[in-house]
């Protein structure tokens, strides 16, 4: 069994996937303290997906990428990047001597660089052409494709909990659905004309 690790925690109703960049607005005093620690001590922290559907207590391990804007009242707009997922064992009201929460977690050690099968790579490249994107990653990964598809929270959970083969199948199905929607939108443009 993997080791339990105590980390700072930021419970939110979002579930970033590895590789995803997420904007956050920091305004509560306890999370201002967490931001200060993330900046000065270069620490990572967890975003626990605080939602009724998260029965497995999964969260995202994130690292501060940049502070976009600082306000006079001490609030900040920041960007964090998800670097791994975790299962949470315990959520603590405070982390050590800090104001912000903490959690005891087990890291998943997700491989965000593992390449995908040829069929999925081909379908993803076709999908990107609808957006006139020709120079995509040379070797997209499962998570980089998932991050492009705008999955909802339930889909993100289902995707994260599946094995690699199931992830590929899930993404192929989602790509087929999204592609069909794009094709129908293209057809509708030919039928309706603005006057």
Strand and helix map with partners:
Blueprint: E1 5-8, E2 21-26, H1 29-40, E3 44-48, E4 58-70, E5 76-92, E6 102-107, H2 118-129, H3 142-148, H4 153-161, H5 164-191
Task: Tell me about this structure.
The chain is an alpha+beta fold and 195 residues long. The chain has 2 domains: 5-107, Roll (Archaeosine Trna-guanine Transglycosylase, Chain: A, domain 4), CATH 2.30.130; 118-191, no CATH class. Helix content is 35%, strand content 26%. The chain is built from 5 helices and 6 strands. The protein has helices at residues 29-40, 118-129, 142-148, 153-161, 164-191; strands at 5-8, 21-26, 44-48, 58-70, 76-92, 102-107. Strands 1, 2, 3, 4, 5 and 6 form a 6-stranded antiparallel beta sheet that branches. A hairpin with a 5-residue loop joins β4 and β5. α2 runs parallel beside α5 (164-191). The longest helix has 28 residues, at 164-191. It is globular, with a radius of gyration of 19 Å. The N and C termini lie far apart (66 Å). 26% of the residues are buried.
């Amino acid at each position: 069994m993997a080791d339990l690790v105590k980390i700072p925690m930021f419970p939110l109703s979002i579930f970033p996937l590895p590789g995803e960049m997420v904007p956050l607005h920091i305004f509560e005093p306890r999370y201002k303290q967490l931001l200060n620690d993330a900046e000065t001590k270069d620490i990572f922290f967890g975003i626990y997906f605080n939602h009724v559907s998260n029965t497995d207590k999964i969260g995202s391990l994130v690292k501060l990428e940049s502070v976009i804007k600082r306000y006079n009242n001490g609030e900040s707009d920041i960007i964090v990047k998800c670097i791994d997922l975790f299962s949470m064992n315990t959520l603590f009201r405070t982390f050590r001597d800090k104001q912000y929460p903490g959690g005891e977690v087990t890291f998943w050690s997700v491989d965000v660089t593992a390449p995908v099968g040829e069929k999925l790579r081909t379908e993803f490249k076709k999908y990107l052409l609808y957006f006139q994107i020709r120079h995509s990653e040379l070797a997209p990964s499962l998570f980089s494709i998932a991050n492009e598809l705008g999955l909802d929270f339930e889909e993100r959970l289902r995707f994260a909990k599946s094995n690699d083969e199931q992830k590929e199948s899930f993404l192929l199905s989602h790509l087929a659905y999204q592609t069909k929607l794009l094709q129908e939108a293209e057809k509708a443009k030919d039928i309706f004309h603005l006057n």
